[in-house]
Known about the structure:
By secondary structure, this protein is an all-beta fold. The chain has one domain. The chain has no helices and eleven strands. Strands 1, 3, 4, 6, 9 and 10 form a six-stranded antiparallel sheet that branches. The chain has a three-stranded mixed sheet with strand order 5-2-11, with no helix packed on it. Strand 7 and strand 8 form a beta hairpin. The chain starts with 15 loop residues before the first strand and ends in a 5-residue tail after the last strand. The N terminus is likely disordered.
Amino acid sequence: xxxxxxxxxxxxxxxxxxxxxxxxxxxxxxxxxxxxxxxxxxxxxxxxxxxxxxxxxxxxxxxxxxxxxxxxxxxxxxxxxxxxxxxxxxxxxxxxxxxxxxxxxxxxxxxxxxxxxxxxxxxxxxxxxxxxxxxxxxxxxxxxxxxxxx
Length: 150
């Protein structure tokens, strides 16, 4: 598993929660994630999704490596197919140096991050409930603004 989700990570956590746990609704959805404010094309983006609070942030249900070569005007659109309707949360790491880890200088992140609902962490990860959103449509879009401290 990618070292990005180690317990030492300060600002990484994407959450993804499928509904009420019932198996009756098996209709698949596509989530379009629009990343904005991406600083550069260096490295990769990592998207982490969780479907239960006890997975957050160290044991994601799913994670994706995203190539940044198609960035245009500091934006990138990525589709995540085959999701069930329900509650989800997302966190993103902009791993600019491709070392598969969030880098810090004096405890301050030197690489970008984002969370669903554009939650703004303050000295720790946002609470799981702060980043939950409801996937209700067959094709739904969320916008995530990348944040860079240094």
